[in-house]
């Protein structure tokens, strides 16, 4: 079975593949010339170049100064539109809008906040998916995670919050605009490294990339960190930058208001979105998979039964086929041919197995961190995928 | 000169007639009252209350829109895990009214199948476990001696097992497989563009089916 990426659902065309680019690495030991205070600190060898009062700074900064945040109407509007707490200062929100592509200096961009926020978002989404759909195969689990908290979804969320991008990042632009540029090549694994597999250099050699190694080695969504696999660098950078703002806001809420507030924010903005998980499945041998499932679980072998049909000798017949195990009905499908109807019925039966949910209000492990929580009851744990 | 002056108005006439007269004539409803009258259609019978019984009629449910494909979010009874509360609830309901909801899953007997829809005939797995070690060795020997005579189907008939078992237990020699592949390739080369396209479309349709797009 394969998972279909939400961004590749029907109607959305694939982007043309651009030439592969090298992975830009962040220089961790880059010296910080600027500092958090607005007064410029003189460096040892630059003492002669301290600007006098009233003189312009010797070089243009890549992002607006933190003190300008208090004068920005856009920033204040965004702060109140998101109903953020008063504990979160406008300067932090302004910093969440500066992406590493605009300002590579990690003391001024949102890289640290976004990394913190992404771990919090992915943790809450993953525990929700695991408890709500305990039988999901790992591929579908990854795609569901991507549908909730992937870069494309988070970019959409930040667009709906009304975040706008600056035409070009710089010192003089409004701090209420997102500072990003797509000129810096694909931003892959720039935040806190990211494990780059050794075999990505060997492009043409066959290498087995199994699900277990994806769990251990690859990114949160099971993708190998590889700049060469980016199809559309501009779109990729756009999504990464816009999503980094959402992640940085969650990180800021966590650092200023605490765990509970961050969880509430994630639940109300990210987990409240609807995802149709049944459209993520792509089967390869559904009839065989269902037979294997019935054999594994000790059910009677599945048998297709023709429930109803119309227009057998016409140009557009319709057959309704049900799959039964003994006397129990597992699934039903309709199609213009008997074979397709049977395969569709098998696929529906398998989907109803994988999409089993204990209920709409599932308890997740992080609920236990609240004070006065009821004793924990273990959720349903499935033995694993069928094939 | 005369011909030209005569012909010019004639062509213009032709052009104007084509522009003014529409290809299909239709009449619009020019006023609100006429439009309302034209759009007034009696509701479908399924929306109306049942008139079969005299007033006051018994309560009934109107299924409109009618029943459609079941959602995969609805888990069938035997797919529910043992600790799910829905399992006990369904079992209780079935015990209360066995004829309405079908009896609890048990061994299927011929008389039980009577109320189920007719089974379809298609090749499916029927495990027999009738082959012994010697049968397997014999199968392999025959396949290696003469893979042309002892094809998968011939062996499956001889040993009364499925062709899949034969292809697993006694695979053909590599050169025979290569020869078969070349033969199929030669046959494929003789296809015309229409047949080739039709085969490609069939494969594409199957992929769409497995993605749930058709």
UniProtKB/TrEMBL annotation, chain A:
Name the SUPFAM superfamilies on file. dsRNA-binding domain-like, RNase III domain-like
Among the Pfam families in the record, one is: DSRM_MRPL44
Q: The RNase III domain covers which part of the protein?
A: 75-258
Annotated compartments? Mitochondrion
Record keywords, A-Z: Mitochondrion, Ribonucleoprotein, Ribosomal protein, RNA-binding
- Spell out the InterPro entries in the cross-references: dsRBD_dom (IPR014720), Ribosomal_mL44_DSRM_fung (IPR044443), Ribosomal_mL44_DSRM_metazoa (IPR044444), RNase_III_dom (IPR000999), RNase_III_sf (IPR036389)
State one molecular function term (GO). Answer: ribonuclease III activity
This protein's GO CC annotations? mitochondrion
Biological process according to GO: RNA processing
Q: Which family does it belong to?
A: Belongs to the ribonuclease III family. Mitochondrion-specific ribosomal protein mL44 subfamily.
Name the record gives this protein = Large ribosomal subunit protein mL44
**Organism of provenance:** Clonostachys solani
Automatic annotation (TrEMBL), chain B:
Q: Which GO terms describe its molecular function?
A: structural constituent of ribosome
* Highest taxon above the source species: Eukaryota
Secretion signal span: none
Q: Under the cellular component aspect of Gene Ontology, which terms does the record hold?
A: mitochondrial large ribosomal subunit
Task: Extract the InterPro entries matched here.
Answer: Ribosomal_mL58
Q: PANTHER family annotated for this entry? A: 54S RIBOSOMAL PROTEIN L20, MITOCHONDRIAL (PTHR28266), LARGE RIBOSOMAL SUBUNIT PROTEIN ML58 (PTHR28266:SF1)
Its name, as the record gives it, is 54S ribosomal protein L20
């Amino acid at each position: 079975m394969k998972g279909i990426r939400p961004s590749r659902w029907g109607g959305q065309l694939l982007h043309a593949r651009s030439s592969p680019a090298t992975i830009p690495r962040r220089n961790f030991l880059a010296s910080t010339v600027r500092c958090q205070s607005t007064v410029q600190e003189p460096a040892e060898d630059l003492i002669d170049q301290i600007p006098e009062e009233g003189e312009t700074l010797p070089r243009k900064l890549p992002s607006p100064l933190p003190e300008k945040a208090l004068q920005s109407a856009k920033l204040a509007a965004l702060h109140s539109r998101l109903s953020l707490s008063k504990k979160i200062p406008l300067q932090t929100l302004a910093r969440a809008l500066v992406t590493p592509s605009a300002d590579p200096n990690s003391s001024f961009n949102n890289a640290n906040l976004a990394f913190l926020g992404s771990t919090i978002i992915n943790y809450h989404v993953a525990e929700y998916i695991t408890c709500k759909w305990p039988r999901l195969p790992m591929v579908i689990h990854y795609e569901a995670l991507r549908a909730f908290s992937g870069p494309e979804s988070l970019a959409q969320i930040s667009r709906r919050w009304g975040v706008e991008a600056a035409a070009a990042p710089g010192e003089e632009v409004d701090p209420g605009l997102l500072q990003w540029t797509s000129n810096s090549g694909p931003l892959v694994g720039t935040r806190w490294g990211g494990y780059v597999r050794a075999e990505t250099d060997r492009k043409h050699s066959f290498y087995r990339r199994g699900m277990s190694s994806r769990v251990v080695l690859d990114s949160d969504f099971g993708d190998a960190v590889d700049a060469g696999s980016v199809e559309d660098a501009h779109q990729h950078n756009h999504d990464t930058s816009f999503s980094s703002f959402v992640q940085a806001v969650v990180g800021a809420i966590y650092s200023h208001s605490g765990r509970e507030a961050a969880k509430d924010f994630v639940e109300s903005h990210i987990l409240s979105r609807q995802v149709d998980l049944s459209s993520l499945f792509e089967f390869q041998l559904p009839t065989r998979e269902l037979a294997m499932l019935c054999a594994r679980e000790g059910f009677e072998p599945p048998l297709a039964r023709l429930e109803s049909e119309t227009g057998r000798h016409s140009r557009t017949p319709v057959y309704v086929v049900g799959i039964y195990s003994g006397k129990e009905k597992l699934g039903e499908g309709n199609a213009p041919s008997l074979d397709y109807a049977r395969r569709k019925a098998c696929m529906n039966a398998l989907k109803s197995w994988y999409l089993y949910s204990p209920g709409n209000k599932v308890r997740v492990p992080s609920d236990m961190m609240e004070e006065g929580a009821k004793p924990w009851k273990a959720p349903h744990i499935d033995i694993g995928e069928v094939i | 000169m005369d011909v030209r002056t005569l012909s010019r108005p004639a062509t213009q006439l032709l052009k104007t007639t084509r522009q003014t007269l529409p290809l299909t004539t239709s009449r619009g409803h020019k006023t609100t009252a006429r439009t309302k009258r034209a759009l007034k259609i009696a509701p479908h019978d399924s929306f109306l209350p049942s008139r079969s019984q005299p007033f006051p009629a018994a309560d009934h449910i109107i299924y409109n829109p009618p029943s459609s494909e079941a959602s995969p979010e609805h888990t069938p009874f035997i797919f529910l895990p043992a600790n799910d509360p829905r399992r006990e609830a369904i079992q209780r309901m079935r015990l209360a009214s066995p004829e309405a909801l079908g009896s609890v899953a048990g061994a299927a007997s011929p008389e039980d199948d009577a109320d189920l829809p007719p089974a379809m005939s298609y090749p499916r797995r029927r495990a027999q476990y009738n082959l012994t070690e010697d049968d397997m060795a014999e199968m392999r020997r025959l396949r290696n001696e003469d893979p042309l005579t002892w094809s998968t189907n011939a062996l499956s008939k001889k040993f009364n097992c499925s062709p899949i078992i034969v292809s697993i237990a006694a695979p053909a020699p590599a050169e025979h497989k290569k020869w078969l592949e070349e033969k199929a390739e030669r046959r494929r080369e003789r296809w015309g563009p229409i047949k080739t396209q039709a085969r490609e479309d069939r494969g594409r349709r199957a992929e769409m089916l497995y993605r749930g797009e058709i």
